[in-house]
Amino acid sequence: MAFENIIGNEKMKELLNTSVANNNIVHSYLFIGPDGVGKSLFATEFAKMILCEANSGKPCENCKSCIQFSGGNHPDFLKIEPEDEKKIKIEQIRYLQEKIAEKPVTSSKKVYIICDSETMTREASNGLLKTLEEPPEYAVIILLTSNESALLNTIKSRCMKMNFLPISENQIMQYLRANGLGENMTENMLKLCEGSIGKALKVENEKEQYLQVEELIKKISKQDITQIWRQADVLYQAKENIVPLLEYMIIIFYQLLKKQNKMCYEKAIQIIEQTKKRIQANANYDMSIDNLLLRLWEELV
Ligand SMILES: [Zn+2]
Questions:
Q1: Which among 5, 34, 123, 163 could disulfide-bond with 90, CB atoms 3.0 to 4.6 Å apart, if both were Cys?
Q2: pTM higher than the cut 0.85
Q3: Phi/psi class of residue 72: alpha, beta or left (left: φ > 0; alpha: ψ in -120 to 50)?
Q4: What is the residue-level pLDDT of the chain in tens, covering all 301 positions?
Q5: Same domain, 103 and 43
Q6: How far is the CA of 36 from the centre of ligand 1 (A)?
Q7: Start-to-end Cα distance in the chain
Q8: Which of 53, 98, 57, 67 is nearest to 80 (CA)?
């Protein structure tokens, strides 16, 4: 079975496996789903399966194709990613068109992956559309996106849509443990990951901050406001990284609200939401945090 090293989206694994086994591969796919759920890993493994000469249902790792693929120099494979200004430009699509016109060298097909395809400029989108309208018979193009609505309808209508789901909290935990991580990862932190392995790794890296926020919230109802302000360095120092910490506070209060339906938790969530908006609108940072803590303290004591 291929895709065995990828977490989650089991149905998708079955679907892609079956399409390779039955040689039922279409010219263009659109992989849709949030960032960090494995779209790129899936697409890469799928490409390797399609290109493998052994045709055994999973990459054989022994044929010329698999060896070239693993070495990063397969002549029939190309991955396009946003470049300067985080855009995919017409020059990149022109290069794809040039390459796709040449017959495959090693394999019987050629596979192209376009990451973050919603970042294509209008010119690039229109260029790609021409290729999607009349692809060479050996071509497979896989577009990845976390924002389907930003793609041209004419592009979407030519692709087979595949929806990727967020990874479950259990599977995220399993993944972290398998990689020697996840110690002290709380239930609240798992909620913050929103089903994304990418986010989970980020949360893992910044765990200390989240633990401090959790500690601070526990103290709010028990201490004087001046003491609370003094112990809130984690918030005062976060500055441009404050948003995930505020979102984390919202998760904490939301979980409390689920356990005990108290008005003060609902108010706390509103206060944090307002602070987030205020900071995003460039209000004075320290004053916003002072005010946030004061208002939470008034609600919770
Ligand atoms: Zn192979």
A1: 123
A2: no
A3: left
A4: 578 888 899 999 999 999 998 989 999 999 999 998 999 999 999 999 999 999 777 899 999 999 999 999 999 999 999 998 899 999 999 999 999 999 999 999 999 999 999 999 999 999 999 999 999 999 999 999 999 999 999 999 999 999 999 999 999 999 999 999 999 899 999 999 999 998 999 999 999 999 999 999 999 999 999 999 999 999 999 999 999 999 999 999 999 999 999 999 999 999 999 999 999 999 999 999 999 999 999 999 8
A5: yes
A6: 27
A7: 56
A8: 98
The rounded Å distance from CA 21 to ligand 1 centre is: 14
Q: How far is the CA of 179 from the centre of ligand 1 (A)?
A: 27
Q: 256 CA distance to ligand 1 centroid (A)?
A: 52
CA of 40 to the centre of ligand 1 (A): 20
Domain boundary among 98, 131, 163: 163
Q: How far is the CA of 139 from the centre of ligand 1 (A)?
A: 18
Task: Point out which residues pair with 154 in neighbouring strands.
Answer: none
Q: Does residue 24 belong to any structural domain of this protein?
A: yes
Residue 172 belongs to a domain: no
- Does residue 197 belong to any structural domain of this protein? no
Take residue 248 and report the two structure tokens written for it: 């984390």
Assess whether 159 and 210 both reside in one domain: no
Domain of residue 267: give its range: 206-300
Pair 159, 14 in one domain: yes
CATH of the domain at 89: 3.40.50.300
Tokens of 234: 């984690």
Residues 41 and 152 in one domain: yes
**What is the spatial order of strands in the sheet that 28-32 belongs to?**
77-80, 110-114, 139-145, 28-32, 160-163
Ligand 1 centroid distance, CA of 68 (Å) = 9
Residue 59 Cα to ligand 1 midpoint, Å, equals: 5
* Residue 66 alpha carbon to ligand 1 centre in Å: 4
Ligand 1 center–CA 44 separation, angstroms: 14
One domain, residues 210 and 157: no
